[in-house]
Amino acid sequence: MGSSAKLFGIMSDGIAIDTFELINKNGMCLSVINYGATITSLKIPIGKNKSVDVVLGFDNLKAYLESFNLKSAPYLGATVGQYAGRINNGIFELNGKLFHLNKNNNNHSLHGGNLGFSNAVWAIKNRSHGENPSITLRFNCQNNYENYPGDLTVELTYTLSEENELVIEYNATSTEDTIVNLTHHSYFNLNGHHSDVSNQELYINSNQILEATNENIPTGNYLNLTNSTYDFSSFKECPTQIDTTFVLNKEQELAACLISPKNKLKMAVYTDQPAVHVYVGGNCEAIKGKENVLYHSLSGICFETQNFPDAPNHKHFPSAVLKKNESYKHKTIYKFEIL
């Protein structure tokens, strides 16, 4: 029970990347590297001397670095920012001024651009041991990083609770008005990262999705889900392909649930954010993952709790503006239990 650290790899500029392990009293074990504040492993105890690693990842730093050179980077386990999701044409207006972001997805900016927070080396601010072990990482983002305004300071804390919760808390401040939308990008698989999610059951606490173009840019319209293929208000099998932003019902913080009938394991996702972007398929095709496992399009499912994609360009969407010297806060919990 507690935490430990060891070398994970060396960047080309000589910076050391470490892996940090947190273990709670139940044997739940989290591994995090300070490259991209990335979760590489999350092992959940499911029986006597038995656990399952429920997230996809790589065994070494080189594989993480090379994954961002792929045609479509998978962002395995990464922290995503400065803005999760797409910004239409890489342009937004703030205080009467147009900002032109770097474009890395067709003609759009995705997940922060070419050098988002997923590619950054984060500093370790704090680690706690004993009950509810945690680690806090910090990234200082300079003004005009990927053409976003303001010096942005982000702190991210991962905590393993004694109730088998992975708690993720973000806090950010800026020296200038800016836009912020952070999320976590683990691909979950309750049968283990070597398996597939097709026979797992999915629930999403939503009655609406954001309508999107064929390049996945929100049109500004909401689509009702009643009796549609996107209606997961009762448990259904995981879809084989989905890349959709669900508008969460505000009366409760439960965003989604995933159940493995095989392992009798349930993961419930709680958040204070207005949406969860659910993603299965595509980016993980034929990627060699940890333990020499060949990942495929059904290897995992993402629950990206966040604000709406392209919110700065839609006045009726929840505001993504972080005012100078104010604080951005975001909390998401992934809770695991045996059924």
UniProtKB/TrEMBL annotation:
The keyword Calcium applies. Beta-D-galactose binds at residues 185-187, 243. Its cofactor is Ca(2+). Keywords: Calcium, Carbohydrate metabolism, Isomerase. GO terms for biological process: galactose catabolic process via UDP-galactose, Leloir pathway; glucose metabolic process. It catalyses: alpha-D-glucose = beta-D-glucose. The active site is at residues 185, 304. Pathway: Carbohydrate metabolism; hexose metabolism. Its EC number is 5.1.3.3. InterPro entries: Aldose_1-epimerase, Aldose_1/G6P_1-epimerase, Gal_mutarotase_sf_dom, Galactose_mutarotase-like, GH-type_carb-bd. CDD domains: galactose_mutarotase_like. Pfam families: Aldose_epim. The keyword Ligase does not apply. Transmembrane segments: none annotated. GO terms for molecular function: aldose 1-epimerase activity; carbohydrate binding. It comes from the Bacteria. Belongs to the aldose epimerase family. Monomer. This is Aldose 1-epimerase. It comes from Flavobacterium succinicans.
